């Protein structure tokens, strides 16, 4: 599962990143799921989550994004109530099932930061960088 910040802002660092880590684990646990692997980058989140077959993936994603956005608004933006118009996460997300490729996905998530840095270095000065 991958989801990004609205406008791809690079805002996930420091105390916010540390808090989100524990928040995501707690929210996933409350839904009876388990985070197998995860990594928070400055502008997006990768998670490999075990979800029971009867659970809707879209409901879990909505729950994670909604509850975490409320937590961020309360604790980092000094909002106590009335969250209308508040948006932290972009509407889109990416989800796929993992079977035989689980090891590859776990490895990708673990090494995401190194991969992004290497990709940025390789594309320096290139007008047609991959997105």
CATH class: Alpha Beta
Q: How many structural domains?
A: 1
| CATH architecture verdict | 2-Layer Sandwich
Neighbour order of strands in the largest sheet: 2-3-1-4
The outline comes out as globular
Describe the structure.
It contains four helices and four strands; from the N terminus they run E-H-E-E-H-E-H-H. It has 131 residues and is an alpha+beta fold. It has one domain: 2-Layer Sandwich (Alpha-Beta Plaits). The protein has a four-stranded antiparallel sheet, sandwiched between helices. It starts with a strand and ends in a 9-residue tail after the last helix.
How is this fold's topology laid out?
Layout: E1 2-5, H1 14-30, E2 34-40, E3 44-50, H2 57-76, E4 89-94, H3 102-110, H4 112-122
Antiparallel strand pairs: 1-3, 1-4, 2-3
Q: What keyword list fits this structure?
A:
131 residues, alpha+beta, Alpha-Beta Plaits, four-stranded antiparallel beta sheet, 4 helices, globular, disordered C terminus
Structure in a nutshell:
This protein has a single domain, classed as Transposase IS200-like (Alpha-Beta Plaits, 2-Layer Sandwich), CATH 3.30.70. It has four helices and four strands. It is of the alpha+beta class.
């Amino acid at each position: 599962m991958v989801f990004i910040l609205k406008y791809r802002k690079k805002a996930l660092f420091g105390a916010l990143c540390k808090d989100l880590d524990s928040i995501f684990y707690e929210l996933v646990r409350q839904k009876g799921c388990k985070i197998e692997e995860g990594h928070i980058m400055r502008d997006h989140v990768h998670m490999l989550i075990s979800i029971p077959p009867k659970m809707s993936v879209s409901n879990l994603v909505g729950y994670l994004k909604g509850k975490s956005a409320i937590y961020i608004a309360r604790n980092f933006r000094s909002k106590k109530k009335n969250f209308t118009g508040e948006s932290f996460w972009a509407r889109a997300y990416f989800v796929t099932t993992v079977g035989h490729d689980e090891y590859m996905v776990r490895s990708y998530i673990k090494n995401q930061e190194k991969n992004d840095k290497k990709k940025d270095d390789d594309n320096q000065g290139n007008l047609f960088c991959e997105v």
